[in-house]
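User: Study the shape:
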Amino acid sequence: MKHLNLASGFLIVLLFFVQVLFLNEVELLAYINPYVYPIILLVLPAETSRLSLLFIGIFLGLGVDLFENSMGTHAFATTLIGYSRPWFVRLVATQGGLEYDDLGLHGLGLRKFLTYGMSALFLHHALLFALDGFSIGFLPFAIWEAFYTSAFSMAFILAGYLLWMPNKNPL
């Protein structure tokens, strides 16, 4: 993780606290909450090892679980995202046959970032809501909730990118 410096660490901590202190209080239609913290795992440098992603994922998820009192569902979902991130990277890397160092919006471009981010967010949210409902009858609702929450979360992520780095045009 040679590109993970002090500024990156500060942004990870800042985004974590924005999630647990502010975004957990945002609701749309009484059941859609933006979960933007998985983006931390997705935009880490491409050469980040899978073991590092697993450790970051489990501690990030446990932190959110602590604030939400959700008994490990976030930890499980973010650990799965950390484990499966190389497959999501291959999903967008093979579309153009290129390798990427910057897995953020500006490095991938809007279309590939949406494909990469929405795929991973949907997996994270579907697992999170399926574990939360813990019922086969709840599964169709969990999939719909995961779809809408992923779209809502991606809108927050894109808005954050455009507000944080307005001088870089990702389009």
